[in-house]
Amino acid sequence: MHQDFASNLRLLCSYYKSIAEVCRRLDINRPQFNRYLSGRYKPSAHTLLRFCDFFGVEEHEILMPHEQFERLIKVRPRPVVVNESAHQESEHLARLQRAGISSLEKYLGYYFEYYESMAYPGRILRTLICIERQDDRVYYQRTERLREHPGDNVFHGVYQGIVNYLTDRIFMLDYETLTGNEMTQTILFPSFKNRVSRLSGLKLGVSGSGERMPCCTRVVYEYLGRTVDKQRALSLCGLYEQNSAEIDSSIKAAISNTMDENDRHFRALYI
Asked: How far apart, in whole angstroms, are the C-alpha atoms of residue 65 and residue 61?
């Protein structure tokens, strides 16, 4: 009989929603697992090692007398349990990433992003985008540099998110990391040329003003390269007037939020 081991195993399982969830995540047969919980059987060395890795304990610890093991567990941080819905969400995101990660390779690097400011209507906002690959995921960071009037303090907003490539469209979703009060989604046309120069699409978010109005605006990404002088690039970011000579006229035309009289939806412009 292995009652101490069985009691220790039941204690570890109590941190999870159910025994069934533990069995699914361990990929172990439920009747077999019940034998270990009953104390009638002790798992093989290989199976015991799997249990220890899963629950985050050492082999000699899980075999301790139950009262001693219980005291040990109580003074440790509680195991971080990922619930089933979060696990399913991670699987969905991983599947999306795998679907188009190879297609994103040529888009890695730095960009200037241009669009009509949601918080400051009538002015153009230029931000710095960095798209990079980490293992089997593609992430990006968007950095805003805002100064409403000359002499004002500079405010930096930092957004972090994920990039997916699905059937000839680039999907980007991020959140504002400093205050946590905003998410934006951007959908871009890919480049069908060998060399990426500009990408266009639509951005959906909320204005940074007090009204937090949901807004949609045309957006252009201007490719800068795999490496840049980030301080120099950030110094060029900020708010620009519509007549500013520092913004190319073709970019101004591409981010203009005009609609034809026959349009029934606000549409992106392919450039």
From this structure: 9
